[in-house]
Please model this.
Amino acid sequence: MLDLQAQLNRSYRLSLIGVCLAFVVIALGAFTRLSDAGLGCPDWPGCYGHLMWPESVNEKQIAELSFPNTKVDTQKTWPEMVHRYFAGALGLLILGLAIFTWKQAKSNVRIPIKLPLALLVLVVLQAAFGMWTVTLKLLPQVVTAHLLGGFTTLSLLWLMCLRLKHRMAVAPMVSGSGPRTLAIVVLVAVVIQITLGGWTSSNYAALVCADLPTCQGQWLPVTDFADGFDLSHKIGPNYEGGVLDLAARTAIHLSHRIGAVVVTVLALILAWRLATAGFKPLAGILLPMLVLQLSLGLSNIWFALPLFVAVFHNVGGALLLLVLVKINYDLYKNNQLSRYTA
Model:
């Protein structure tokens, strides 16, 4: 039987590997979505009936006979399948983490068990959303939910790492109380902003405003928020390329821009409050992530959504989210320790 420290170390390493793998899955998912490869494979979980994807001329001919409404495009098939295999590897790792922690919990070892089980349920749900993304032809609600599921998986794995690290060696407590309520507000604002980003991407609204700070050369362009945020899209059409008109897409894009301004202001206030309350290291990691994400977002507009920048804008959003998860966790634990020692 492993001793407690060894068990915690093993769970921590598995969780940390999961965080890294989840980052790769998010980046590959963004690359697949932004390169219009979401329907590169018309079936699931294979690709034109293959475990990988059809490559030879003969394989492509057979595939196109089996799926007469789609033409094999290797530039779109491989990103989709690589994404699926990495997502599958992440699922297996989470299964292994859940089994390991369950066995340790039965031995009365104090290792978090609820998080791995929640992750296991979530990864199964994510697989379903991955399938529906294909079968429902990139339905925006499903694509956005699939994106949020990926970010949630990453966040829970990161939270698992933080909890295990705390149990292995408690970090020195910072005197004083931090801005816990504001930190929660900023975290919620970032989650909403990520949702808006996913909705913008899934409705192909990223390029409807190619100028800054105006949109289409106007401060108040024509918008249709009712249509832009109508969640009752009918199942059936192919949503690749988007189906909304310009006014609806403009409303979506502007909402994402406004959200960026709100998040920036709130995050700056949080960084200032953290610094003045004795949490300068936390402020020191928040500000660079905020600047990075803003720079990537602005670059998407200035340079007309280059694929490399757009993918890293998704990764930047994930990094900012993890920073806020750490800030909230550290403030929560500091508050608990303050009460205990009071």
